[in-house]
Amino acid sequence: MDKYQILKQYFGYDHFREGQERLIDAILEGRDVFGVMPTGSGKSLCFQIPALLMEGLTLVISPLISLMKDQVASLNQAGIHAAYLNSSLSVSQYHKALSLAREGRYPIIYVAPERLETEEFLEFALHASISMVAVDEAHCVSQWGQDFRPSYLKIVEFIKKLPKRPVISAFTATATQEVREDIVDILMLRDPLLVTTGYDRPNLYLASRRRRINTRRLKISWRLTPDSAASFTV
Q: Could you say which of 97, 109, 172, 185 is the most buried, measured as most Cβ atoms within 10 Å of its Cβ?
């Protein structure tokens, strides 16, 4: 199965969105990547699709329990075995998930950054074949970012302990130039492919018109399929 077949079979899309294919190809070539892509642009597919094509395990580091649950539920519903390891699990659930992970049941595991510091998880990681570490919400690593998480600073220390350095991919929706430089520096990305996409969409149209009563009307329309469209006016 190739990337196009995975895109269609598991995610239901016929074509990649802007930037996705470049990031996926770079990861499959063994290169570090850094994607700055707006919410809703399909960042998760940029590491989920390579995870299904690479040998070994992909660890996705995320600070948001709700996001982990949503993405793992979506993957499992699509027929992709995935799990998450965070504080929402009971002790027995955590041990069960880790046991299945040791058996190689999951190509993708989402993990909270705090878990990287625990002895039990580190012992698992040292004996697992980790092909990629994907850092979601990567701006959390920068003290210049609005959502700085000190636990994100432990990611590089964790990676250094692994027997073999995996591909590192980092993703965020927005980041200033200063934060971008911080992310590359702190995560120690090696010659990363940087892809930045904007909010402009071919199916989104914005227009402003002046009315006689000196107010402005904003019309937004979008096309879901070639035969359907919707719009509203403010």
A: 109
